[in-house]
Fold this sequence. Notes:
CATH topology of the largest domain: BirA Bifunctional Protein, domain 2
Order of helices and strands: EHEEEHEEEEHHHEEEEE
Distance between the termini: 39 Å
Amino acid sequence: MFTINHIKLETIDSTNDYTLSLKDSLVFKEGLVVTANFQSGGNGQRGKAWESNANENLLLSVVIEPKLKLDEQSLISKIAALSVCDLLKSLGIEALIKWPNDILVNKQKIAGILMQNKLQGNYITHSVIGLGFNVNQLVFKHYLPKATSLRLQLNKEYEVLEIQEQFLSFLSTRLIRLKKGENQTNEYLKALFLKDTPAAFESDNKQFMGIIKGVSESGKLLIQLEDDSITAFENQQVKYLF
């Protein structure tokens, strides 16, 4: 599925932005893969920058055509995150998904995903899945959570292209399952960081204790509060404190 349409770039501000700039062209269709050796302006969640040394990590964007309703967009995030977990598991690493789209190993961030959709009415016709995956980088700036890489975890250098091909293979499998109507939510919940565990959060500059119970169909984080009520939080509304 992701083997024919491949645009390889040396340097670009953002693979997602570049991919979206092609939205009115014939090349913008399911299966398009855009990769770069370096991003000068890579984006993460909440508008944060994504740090990556040149030629050391996997920076890519892929286009899929999910044909889902807008309120089902979390299904795309779930299969993307699970595909990264599948890849890490194949290498002997157990990973967890920090909602909405960070992948953690031992509470350290090894990958991040950024989703951007093209809509027609209330339907998602195309979705651009952007992935930043730390492969061989050894030194990172100070982040919360702390960053890590495959090389730091396994003390081995990897071919970025091989990691790319493995990720796309796992994503293809999960996408096929999604299009067949298979629900992969239970797998996602099993991999959800801090699920069913009392933890500290912050919202509106107020700290509180809560327990993550799941994620709504529209992608909101469901947290059980101390009074046992469950509140649904948007991505920008709540912050983990750990």
